[in-house]
Write a structure and sequence with these properties.
Number of domains: 1
Radius of gyration: 21 Å
Largest sheet: none
Mean pLDDT: 82
């Protein structure tokens, strides 16, 4: 969904195609890295000098009645105002670099931030877990209702930067995932992701071509289901020269199933009594978008300690999802695009302009924000090096990591709202049933295979994350 005004139509957004350093500064992935690492470095500097980001990284606390909410707002009003100003300037500056006007961004960001704050407070209600009022799910449901009901005004669209928010959030997520965890579980995630990706792609591609769809369209659909959802579909479409309308349909179907599995996977995992680590791995294997998967993983994390029979720490669900989706699947985007570009140019009839087949293709298609995730993890791990676990939990966690996690939650909530507000189901009706049938077949295979791998084959590895 990167570099476009709304998820279902990647051709409508302005692009910042510049040479040299301006290209680096004007690309969504790089902007997400600079912003995310900027927050991380600011937190490290303050922590090293005896300070913290805690004052400006304000978040609602647990509450029981409305009077407690009013009290929190009155007490922390200056902090919320400062946080709004910080995010408006930083995210707005990124939007300007992507080609949007700051005033247009700010006009949409004001209500977006306000609603995100309301949802954050709802998630802190002491009865929220009982009624499944997780902020990501509520944000999506609200956004979908507005988008497909009354519609979203055009003046608000510039602030709905889904991929931008998600990529920044993933960089911030790296600050809470130690390097040791990546090194330990990363190989497992790569192997599991490789198995599922190959089988899912083959299923979707074969069914799509049997139904008479163009091979480029079939490859775009297959990669969207097998690798990295929307980003994978866009990368493959550019590599093989798929038609713009086919790319838009593929994105729409990926989003449709990504939203459906947000609700489906946590409910299935809950009914099966999976631990948080195992459930997070299954979600990471079978979700089709980073934002949707994080919403599902965070929703399941909320069950830990509140739902009988759900073992594991809450963070394990998000950590396992990140290792499977971000480390395990997202890193394959460039390689898949590179291989399919070769196939398209050497085996398929030329009906479009495919991407150049050279080493640069891998780098161009590689999700750069993954590098930001790793660097953030390395930075925080260096700061925490040598600290005993008890000291880490008592000093490093609250002083450095926790404020960054709060900023991450704000960013993800903005992303979940934006997903709902930019998803319009009526666009799917124009494509007919064949693409949906092909992709849905792959979804069925993916869910079953992902479950077996997460619970039976590699279940021991993922279950340890919850201990």
């Amino acid at each position: 969904m990167s570099e476009r005004a709304e998820p279902l139509n990647p051709a409508t957004a302005p692009r910042a195609e510049r040479a040299g350093w301006r290209a680096v500064l004007g690309k969504e992935d790089w902007l997400a890295i600079w912003i995310g690492l900027g927050f991380v470095l600011a937190g490290i500097v303050l922590y090293a000098t005896g300070g913290s980001l805690r004052w400006i990284a304000v978040a609602p606390q647990k509450w029981h009645d409305v009077a407690e909410v009013s009290g929190q707002l009155l007490e922390a009003a200056p902090r919320y105002a400062a946080l709004f100003g910080l995010l408006a300037v930083v995210f707005g500056g990124g939007a300007v670099a992507l080609g949007f006007r700051f005033r247009r961004f700010l006009a949409g960001f004001v209500p977006l931030f306000g609603v995100a704050g309301i949802l954050y407070f709802i998630g802190q209600w002491d009865q929220a877990a009982r009624y499944n009022l997780e902020p990501p799910l509520v944000a999506l449901a609200l956004g979908l209702t507005v988008s497909n009901g009354i519609g979203v005004p055009r003046w608000a669209e510039a602030a709905l930067r889904v991929e931008f928010y998600i990529k920044i959030g993933i960089v911030l997520l790296g600050a809470g995932v130690p390097v040791a965890l990546i090194a330990w579980a990363g190989p497992v995630a790569i192997v599991q992701a490789g198995i599922v990706s190959l089988v899912t792609f083959a299923t979707i591609y074969l069914v799509a071509t049997r139904l008479g769809l163009d091979r480029r369209f079939a490859a775009t659909l297959g990669t969207g289901g097998a690798v990295c959802g929307v980003s994978g579909a866009i990368a493959t479409a550019g590599a093989v020269g798929a038609r713009r309308e086919d790319t838009s349909v593929a994105i729409s179907i990926v989003i449709l199933w990504a939203i459906a599995t947000i609700f489906l996977l946590p409910l299935l995992s809950k009914s099966l009594g999976l631990s948080t680590g195992v459930a997070g791995a299954w979600i990471g294997t079978s979700e089709f978008a980073d934002a949707a998967g994080l919403a599902a993983a965070q929703a399941y994390a909320g069950y830990a300690g509140h739902v009988p029979g759900i073992a594991g720490a809450p963070d394990a669900a998000v950590q396992a999802f990140t290792l499977m989706k971000v480390i395990g699947r997202d890193v394959w985007i460039g390689i898949w695009a590179f291989v399919l570009a070769i196939v398209a140019t050497t085996r398929w009839e030329s009906t479009g302009v495919a991407a150049p087949v050279d080493a640069r293709t891998i780098w161009n298609r590689f999700p750069k924000f993954v590098l930001g995730f790793v660097v953030a993890s390395v930075f925080v791990s260096i700061v925490a090096a040598g600290a005993a676990y008890a000291d880490y939990k008592k000093v490093v966690q609250p002083g450095l990591v926790a404020p960054l996690q709060v900023l991450r939650v704000w960013t993800f909530t903005l992303a979940f709202l934006s997903i709902g507000l930019t998803t319009r189901f009526r666009d799917l009706a124009r494509a007919g049933a064949r693409p949906l049938v092909a992709f849905s077949t792959g979804v069925a295979v993916n869910l079953v295979l992902g479950y077996v791998l997460s619970t039976q084959v590699f279940g021991t590895y993922w279950d340890r994350l919850g201990q």
